[in-house]
Amino acid sequence: MKYKKHNLGFTLIELLVVIAIISLLSTVALASVDSSRKKARDSVRMLDVRTLETAILTYANDNGSIPEAVAENYYGWEISSVMSTPNFINTLVQGGYLPSPGLYDPINNAVYHYAYIKRGDQGGCSFGTTGVLFVRFEQSDVNFGKTVPNDWGPGARVLCIR
Questions:
Q1: pTM
Q2: What is the DSSP string of the chain?
Q3: Residue 71's pLDDT is what?
């Protein structure tokens, strides 16, 4: 009488198919998580820029005009990611218009930062604008502020301060 040997293990092909399916599912999950993180950072940016606008307008109400540009760098734009130099955020914190240490972009580097200029002729703002706040979103379909020319980069928006 011959006995059949039953293999209770998996074949190499079966293991490779399972590994491929798990890899595919994890890739889809990670892409979804990354998209959610970008949307969350963009939500923080919208809130921060509205808070900056309120702080600048409160400063203007108390002092008669919006804050002066402290560091005349970058063609007159003050960049929040340049923390080593004085900037508009430091002015607002020192005046008590923003809590310390201030508001900075969640990424806060050369690409993603907040910028401010005390001129109304930037970013397509109209007559009567006294200053402009600049922000760049990671998602290009964000409905916020004014869209600026393409050479400012994808996701770039400005908020005109009157």
A1: 0.74
A2: -PPPPPP-S--HHHHHHHHHHHHHHHHHHHHHHHHHHHHHHHHHHHHHHHHHHHHHHHHHHHHSSPPPPSS--GGG-EETT-TTS--HHHHHHHTTSS-TT----SS-SSSS-EEEES-SSSTT--TT--EEEEEE-SSTT---SEE--GGG-TTEEEEEE-
A3: 58
